[in-house]
Design a protein that fits this description.
The chain is 76% helix and 0% strand. It is mainly alpha-helical and 359 residues long. The longest helix has 43 residues.
């Protein structure tokens, strides 16, 4: 017969052992996610119209002068900015989706579904195509404002005075996305002389025009957004307990929701301004990350960052190299947004079908 003190000591040992196991497993997930991202970067840098061995790619990244001049140009000037932008866009969308799912406490939330990306896309299209003197460096800021407005409109439509439900939120987001996408298409049609082919590719999500200018444009927004997301991780964990419990613990629920939505808008808006309307990354990544590391946002956000980056890098490689080769026409390039939609769309339908709409 164990004494109460012995039972407490045994429980403490078991709890400490479980905590160490969770930390070790989460660390392993982080390491494997980083390895998946690194492998995707090396593969993408070496694949294309001119194939470069992985050893030469790594050598070029370490010291550009150690490889042939043409190899250095291809790796550093042609492919590297596109790969890095894809990684940052994936990071932004993965973290934005994680925050939005925390806001509504539903795995169905996603920047694309909830109208955030559509609002940012419309603002970016108007400022970049219809305002000739608008500074290019301010387009991500305009996209952030549009994304935030889109999120607020969806939330206001879904609000019935006592709260929101997942069904109303999803329906409002889908309706607003359709409407704003139609407006964005109208803007494109009205400015067809600007370069319709590139813009239409932007509408479905792509990295065709990715270069060092776009990379330096998006990185500050990504860095600030990720830092703010990590600072909000503790509040997000409390919010996940439910409104009543969170309020009882002293959390300002609606303020926290607004802050999380604003950070998601920063991340999603800057991504839209650079890569267009890439769909379902913010839906797919958080669901996978949550199954791997649990619902603690202190670990969920970094994992979503790594998995989102890896997903976008591999999806862009598939759109640029793998799928065209399988289709027998290596000269074409599929927009990366189509690849992510093909992967993420069925997941969204499965979540709806399985009624997995709450935590």
């Amino acid at each position: 017969m164990h004494t109460p003190a012995q039972l407490v000591a045994t429980s403490s040992v078991q709890f400490a052992s479980q905590a160490r196991w969770r930390l070790a497993s989460r660390t392993l997930v982080g390491v494997l996610s980083f390895a998946l991202l690194a492998a995707g970067i090396v593969y993408s840098l070496g694949s294309g119209s001119v194939n470069i061995p992985s050893s030469d790619v790594i050598a070029a990244l370490r010291d550009r002068a150690s490889v042939a001049r043409m190899t250095g140009v291809i790796v550093h000037e042609v492919r590297l900015p596109r790969v890095l932008i894809g990684a940052v866009v994936g990071m932004n969308l993965g973290v934005a989706g994680t925050l939005l799912q925390g806001v509504v406490r539903s795995p169905l939330a996603d920047p694309y579904i909830l109208g955030v990306s559509a609002g940012g896309g419309l603002a970016a299209a108007i400022t970049s195509l219809m305002i000739p003197d608008f500074p290019p460096g301010a387009v991500p800021l305009a996209a952030f404002v549009g994304a935030l407005i889109g999120a607020l409109i969806v939330y206001a439509i879904a609000w019935d005075g006592s709260g929101v439900t997942t069904v109303r939120l999803a329906l409002a987001g889908v309706a607003l996305t359709a409407m704003l996408s139609a407006f964005t298409t109208t803007v494109v049609v009205m400015t067809v002389e600007v370069g319709a082919q590139t813009v239409f590719q932007w509408l479905v999500g792509g990295l065709y025009t990715a270069g060092w200018t776009q990379y330096h444009l998006i990185v500050p927004y990504a860095a600030v957004g990720f830092l703010l997301a990590m600072l909000l991780a503790g509040r997000a964990n409390i919010l996940a307990l439910g409104d009543d419990v969170a309020q009882g613990l002293g959390l300002r629920v609606e303020q926290t929701r607004f802050l999380m939505s604003a950070v998601a808008a920063i991340l999603a808006g800057s991504s839209v301004a650079v890569a267009g309307l890439v769909a379902f990354v913010g839906l797919l990544v958080p669901n996978i990350a949550r199954r791997l590391v649990g619902s603690d946002f202190r670990f969920l956000i970094p994992t979503s960052m790594l998995l989102g980056s890896a997903l976008m890098v591999w999806a862009d490689a598939a759109a640029r190299v793998i799928f065209p080769t399988l289709l027998g026409n290596a000269n074409i390039e599929i927009p990366v947004g189509i690849v992510t939609a093909v992967v993420g769309g069925p997941l969204f339908l499965w979540l709806v079908r399985a009624r997995r709409t709450q935590w």
